[in-house]
Amino acid sequence: MSLSSVGRFRFATRFGIEGRTFDPGRYPVAQYRWVTPEYFRILQIPLKRGRLLGESDRGKPRYLINETLARQFFPHQDPTTHRLIMGVMDPHQDPIEIAGVVGDVRDVGLDEAVPPTLYMISSSPRMTLLVKTAGDPMRLSAPIREAIHRADPEVAVLRVATVEQFVADSLARRRFALTLLAAFGGLAALLTAAGIYGLLAYSVSGRAREFGIRAALGATPGNLLRMILKEGAAVTLPGLAAGVAVSLACARLVKSVLYRISPMDPLSLAAAGAVLSVIAVLSVWLPARRAARVDPGAALRVE
């Protein structure tokens, strides 16, 4: 499940740790989740330390914590030997036993950092039902709705979706932004190719006499082709170097729309440079091939 910003605030709570003191208003914050005992098995969330909670733990002061919370507040310690303090902003505070530590889950959003999370065996008027199937899960949507309504006709089923859909939804904003960037990047590449081609094509057409003289003096088509390619490289290589420098300087601007990849990823930069190099070579090669095929006699007669 991917929570909205409102949902994240609603499911956040402050907590303390028995034996530790915190300044007023600076108690740590964790997300809390109401789950049933089968939740961890269905999602294959591993148990890292201690034990999982069962139905007998329902309503009791006994929680599970995730790895992030354990790593931040109990480094190099066994969290199950400590207790949390809930209700730190209230006059009455409750000590909570840590039964175990479970693996991190990105239920706030696939592109979001995993927050410290508490799990308790409980239920609420609005919950998400997880069903694990062997085949297409959407084929069971109607039977599942019917089973829920048979159990309680007043329960409203707001949405039926696969976990893959929730994952895709959590990345929708970034995917849209990256699609726009890719579209503008492709347009910029086309404009770059057109500019290089136009510049060199104009240069080649204005140097027909020069190429005719060179050919008359013994220059082969290969010599002319290499000469034009070198001139094109002298124009494009500094541009590529400048582009890499600008992309590194602006890396922080695009970091917010990337997921699990650095804006300075060497492989990505190399791939982008290779694509632009191919575009530049093709843009230079077409005018260069035309120059290499010039007829010396025709070029001199034109002049």
Q: Could you explain the architecture of this structure?
A:
The protein contains eleven helices and seven strands. The chain is elongated. It has a six-stranded mixed barrel. The protein has 303 residues and is of the alpha+beta class. It starts with a helix and ends with a helix.
Quick rundown:
With 303 residues, the protein is α+β, with helices and mostly antiparallel strands.
List keywords for this structure.
elongated; alpha+beta; 49% helix; 303 residues; 11 helices
Give the SSE map.
Elements: H1 5-10, E1 12-17, E2 29-35, H2 39-42, E3 47-50, E4 62-66, H3 67-73, E5 83-86, E6 94-102, E7 117-121, H4 141-151, H5 163-170, H6 172-206, H7 208-216, H8 221-249, H9 251-254, H10 266-292, H11 296-302
Helix pairs in contact: 6-10, 7-11, 8-10
Oligomer: single chain
Unreliable stretches (pLDDT < 50, length at least 5) are none
Main sheet characteristics: 6 strands, mixed, barrel
Q: Termini, distance in Å?
A: 74 Å
Count of DSSP-assigned helices = 11
Give the number of DSSP strands.
Answer: 7
- Strands of the largest sheet, in order across it? 1-2-7-4-6-5
Order of helices and strands: HEEHEEHEEEHHHHHHHH
Please indicate the percent range of residues in DSSP E strands (runs of 2 or more): 5-15%
- Gyration radius (Cα, Å) is 32 Å
Would you tell me the structural class of the helices and strands? alpha+beta
Please give the share of residues in helix. 40-55%
* The number of domains: 2
The geometry reads as elongated
